[in-house]
Amino acid sequence: MGEKHLHDSHPDIVKRLKRAEGHLRRVIEMFDEGRSCVDLAQQLHAVEKAVEEAKRTLIHDHIDHCLDAATNGKGRPTDVSLAEFKSISRYL
Length: 92
Prior knowledge:
- With about 90 residues, this protein is an all-alpha fold.
- It contains three helices and no strands.
- The longest helix has about 35 residues, at about 35-70.
- The two termini are about 25 Å apart.
- The model has no long low-confidence stretch (mean pLDDT about 85).
């Protein structure tokens, strides 16, 4: 396997995802409790937003890192950075 890929934002993203995981577990319990569909939809929306924010942070950090590396001539060649940028932009 290749070298470990870690950005400064990754620990914060993991924290966000762990909170979302706990929230999702609570929503599942709410189903078992027979909570209203409105309550469930509201809580699922909150979980969805938390995961979306974690994804957005990851993608923005990656883009910043790749653009900085391409601009400053560090790391990968520009064509590789551009290909990665195009690839990850599908998930925005």
